[in-house]
Description:
Distance between the termini: 18 Å
CATH class of one domain: Alpha Beta
CATH architecture of one domain: 3-Layer(aba) Sandwich
Number of helices: 7
Helix content: 55-70%
Strand content: 5-15%
Strand order of the largest sheet: 1-4-5
Radius of gyration: 15 Å
Amino acid sequence: MALCYLDTSALLPYYRAEKHSTQVQEFLQSLQQTPVISNLTKTEFASALSRWVRTKELSTDEADQIQVLFSQHLAQKLYQVRAMNDSHFVQAERWLAQRTGALRTLDALHLAFAMQLEAALVTCDGALAGAAGRLGLPVEYIA
C-alpha cells in the first residue's frame, strides 16, 4: 500500500483495547512504509486520554502509561510526524463552506492533510471514511 495517514480513531485502538484493536494492529503490522500522523493527531490523542480519565474509563496511571508508550513510539520513529500548515486549513475551510454533508471541522483538517500528502486516510470512523469517499480521496476504513 502507498503512504498512509492515520487519523486518531485508527491510532487509539493500537494503544487501548477497543473494538477495532486487532484489525488496527494487523493493519499496522502489514504496512511496508512508516505511516504518517499529524500534530493534530497527537493533540487529539492526548485529548482522548484526558477524556477517558474524566469519564473514569481509564485511571490516571493507565493514561500515563499509554502516553509514555506513545511517546516512546514517536521517539523510535514508528510514525512520521508532520505538521499541518495554512494550506490544510484553507482546503478544510473550502470543503466546509460548500455546506454539503455533515463534515466536521477536525475531520475536514484530517482529510485536507491526507489529500495534500497524497496518502490514503486510515480511519475507524465511518462518517470520516464516508466523507473521504465522497471527496474521491483514498481511504482504508477499518470497521
